[in-house]
Specification:
552 residues; Rossmann fold; 13% strand; transferase; polyamine biosynthesis; spermidine biosynthesis; EC 2.5.1.16; transmembrane helix
């Protein structure tokens, strides 16, 4: 992107190997390529920051703000290179290709082996931004040496090539590079294209402007950068395996990249006797050690009452469905899952299928794929006989602090949920840990009440110390979205839930026909109600689509 540009004074036309019009076209073509590569680097940093750190809005704001600021600095610093614009541009592109191409691997390495990638992210955002900002002033100088077009026309041409290139790079990243090559190889290929384009322009078109020493230096630098990028591309698979072992341990059995996220299974069958764990995008979603505590607390209080028809939002691992299907009088269960890859694993992986009680083989379970918000919006009328109204709706979704899920904890979302509930029906929501994030937890409660629900908050304790099973927990406490750091023990060893019904608050109790449970009983529920109440924050505003209130 163009932030600043400097119009250089005209110099004597260089001896070109092509006609001036062709030279002008080649420079604009390189502007196009460099803009596309630059935007790929930006999007790569944003995507990795959201994946490795979380909170995509905050991370995107930090990356883009730093890069735009750095681009301004780069434009100013480029003034010192205008006297040697050709060699300066060649070196800038080589440095940009090396940093941008290797940024994904370095960020992933810092996350895997150091547990923290924020400082590396800031460093790459600033350095890549400075180099991108230096491009346009240098290219302006070069194009004015080739053509005597007025400055206004030159600027217009450069802007057009820059913005069109940014468009192509922005579309290529999600639709070509990510699905075909992945983040690491995609960044390395972008760097290779970048260095070839910049090096070819300088060494061929402006080679006569360079001294023999400068030509040798540029040629050597470009070859070295290509060699580094090529070697890294050859080692990508080994690097990914090593980094995955560093993050997940040696018990990785399954690692797949679906259209939605990275899914990793460790332990279980063939896992050296370790308990099964399911990770989504690096965050622990299920641990066999204590998942039953979470899912029993999520499901069974909502089943106290009529429960012939049940809707589960999320829960593609089949564990919430397992608990629901333990009731003999349940006639139908509809499960709405965003990622078909998770449901496929839950159905076919022997260890995960055993853990969920082979819920996907039960004829009462029907699975639909899609975003829970969009599904409720499209199916809330209950016009089809197999759809609503539902006696029970179970919201087994990621924590509201994860930005993409904030709409699933909004007043509008709960309004849609109320449309599919039968009279007297109950909604249960996983709302994050009240002890660690009380403001988030009680904002969920306030949002439900604003949507017309009566609410009964409660919590569940007993999470395995340092290794929890609820949504959005990271291995050994690292990168934990619930605010826990390694070594905090059981400080955050609770899950928070809100049981809701339209109108009057429902009672938090177990159904008389509840199956035998491993962790839940009436005294435990009573203690959970008191435990949640002790963290209460009052007079919090609800969260809406236009004003989400679950930051950080």
């Amino acid at each position: 992107m163009i932030d600043q540009y400097v119009v250089a004074p005209a110099e004597s036309a260089p001896r070109l190997p092509v006609r001036p019009s062709a030279g002008r076209f080649l420079i604009l073509a390189v502007v196009f390529v460099c803009a596309a590569c630059g935007l790929v680097y930006e999007l790569e940093l944003v995507a990795l920051a959201s994946y490795l750190i979380g909170d995509s809005v905050t991370q995107a704001s930090v990356v883009l703000s730093l890069m735009v600021f750095a681009m301004g600095l780069g434009s100013l610093l480029a003034k010192r290179l205008r006297c040697r614009a050709a060699v300066g541009f060649g070196l800038v592109e080589a440095a940009l290709a090396l940093l941008g191409g290797c940024s994904a691997m370095v960020l992933y390495a810092t996350f895997a082996w150091m547990g923290e990638s924020r400082y590396a992210l800031i460093g790459f955002s600033l350095s890549i931004g400075i180099l991108i900002g230096a491009e346009i002033p240098l290219l302006m100088t070069l194009i004015q040496r080739v053509s005597r077009q007025d400055a206004g026309g030159t600027v217009a041409d450069l802007f057009a090539a820059d913005y069109v290139g940014a468009l192509v790079g922005g579309l290529a990243f999600p639709f070509l590079l990510l699905p075909w090559l992945g983040q690491l190889t995609g960044a390395l290929l972008t760097g290779a294209v970048n260095v070839v384009a910049g090096g070819a322009l300088v060494l061929w078109v402006f080679g006569s402007d360079l001294t023999g020493r400068e030509r040798g230096l540029l040629l050597l630098v470009n070859v070295l950068v290509l060699a580094v990028l090529g070697a890294a591309a050859v080692m990508v698979d080994d690097f990914e395996r090593a980094a995955r072992r560093a993050v997940y341990g040696d018990g990785v059995r399954v690692a797949v990249q679906t259209d939605v996220q990275e899914v990793v299974l460790t332990g279980g069958r063939g896992g050296r006797g370790e308990p099964l764990s399911l990770y989504l995008d690096g965050r622990l979603r299920v641990s066999e050690r204590d998942e039953f505590r979470y899912h029993e607390a999520l499901v069974h209080p909502a089943m106290s009452g009529r429960h012939e028809r049940v809707l589960i939002l999320g829960g593609g691992d089949g564990l919430a469905a397992r608990e629901v299907l333990r009731y003999a009088d349940v006639r139908s269960v509809t499960l709405v899952e965003l990622d078909p890859g998770v449901a496929r694993l839950a159905r076919t992986d022997p260890a995960l299928a055993e853990l969920n009680g082979h819920a996907y083989e039960d004829p009462r379970l029907r699975v639909e794929y899609g975003d829970a918000f969009a599904w409720l919006r499209g199916h809330g009328s209950g016009s089809a006989p197999e759809r609503g109204p539902y006696d029970v709706v179970i919201s087994d979704l990621p924590n509201p602090a994860i930005t993409p899920s904030t709409k699933l904890y909004s007043e509008e979302f709960y309004g849609l949920a109320s449309r599919v509930l039968a009279d007297g029906g109950r909604l249960t929501v996983h709302a994050g840990p009240p002890a660690v994030r009380p403001r988030t937890y009680w904002t969920v409660d306030a949002t439900l009440r604003a949507a017309g629900f009566g609410t009964s908050p409660y919590s569940a304790t007993g999470r395995a110390a340092g290794f929890g099973a609820g949504p959005d927990r990271a291995h050994d406490g690292r990168n934990a979205d619930e605010g826990e750091a390694a070594g905090e023990g059981t400080r955050g060893a609770d899950w928070g839930f809100v049981l809701a019904a339209v109108g009057r608050p429902p009672r938090v109790e177990l159904s008389p026909d509840a199956p035998r449970l491993r962790s839940l009983a009436a005294p435990v529920l009573a203690a959970g109600v008191l435990g949640a109440e002790r963290t209460r924050l009052r007079d919090l505003p609800p969260s809406t689509l236009v004003h989400p209130r679950y930051a950080g």
